[in-house]
Known about the structure:
This protein has 398 residues and is mostly helical. It is built from 16 helices and two strands. A two-stranded antiparallel ribbon has the order 1-2. It is globular, with a radius of gyration of 24 Å.
Amino acid sequence: MTARLLLLTLLLAPAAARAQDADAGRAAIERYGCTSCHEVPGLGQRTETSCVGCHQEVARRPRSGFGARPHVEHYLRAPSLEHVTSRLSRDYLVRFLVDPHDVRPRLEETMPRLPVTERDARDIVAYLERVAPARPAVARSPAPDPSRVAEGAEAFRNAGCAACHSFGNFDPGFEVPAETVRALGEQARHAPNLRFVRERMHPDVALAWIRDPRAVDPHTLMDRPGVTAEQALAIRDFLYLASPGAPAPVPDVPRAASLRPLDRAVGWADVRRIFGRSCIHCHAHADDGSSAGALGFEPVALDLSTYEGVLAGVRAPDGSRRSVLEPAEDGTPPLLARLLRRHAEAGRDVVPHRRDTLIRAVRPHADTGPAGMPLGLPPVPEPDLRVLATWIARGAPR
């Protein structure tokens, strides 16, 4: 091989590798069902069959005086991924896909924990980088400076940033009533917790965003704030250098052993009401194995909508059935174990406004255990877990 040919090969090899990664990323996006919620460049959004599209359609239905109509309040909107690589760092996006955390504390829902590997995450980001529009020009800016933090805190308060945003548990000196937040609409409910900006954005991008958000991402709900260039710089430095307050306590995690049996009769009707709140949205009518096998998970054909379906349990890879009610080796029934695991995830995944545990967004090693249920939603309350534990302990009476 001549020197010129060798040089050409070395120059083209990284581009070819990136193209292969992006192709693999497209396949991963389809495998994990990203378009069920997000608009993805080159793939669109499956509005007819998507989670968000279905929920929006239900929310638009006119109210009727005859019977109860379906009601949804979660996953009515998800961010477009068209410009996500223009504003968020590659490493952050990779770790977020592998190990999500609650970014928007005024929403109950968050990114579901899917079985995404780090390799898959890197491929997905490579695809999003390939199909993203040209990056907007972002000017270089001064490094964050402690001398501007006090000015930034004042500008943050005066500009009304805290009307929508959290900054960890920072106290801006006022609290916005819940009804006002609702009146402010999607812009307030989807506003992110700004203490993550240090891990999500380069300081230059953060400053450009504060000055004109839609110049960085035209899809954002955020309006251009009425601040001067000097105030924008000070707010940026405040977000990068100021303390986000004291950490809130990590929620207690209930244990199976602590779920004391109830001193009343518990039947299938009590259990079905619990499953009906969110579980059967995915786990229903799964006798044919076609249900609850999306989002990258293996289909388990678990039907929680009927008594017979619960007793039938899950379908193993070999086609056999395994009970979700019989205790596992640790003594906990698999059904309860998955619901309890969601409580363990809640310290990162369900963080109410200004009750931030201040756990780092990017962790070096993510817990790769099975995802807690319900995916992306708050845990099943402990009183309901006691109902389920009582029902299981008494032999799952009809």
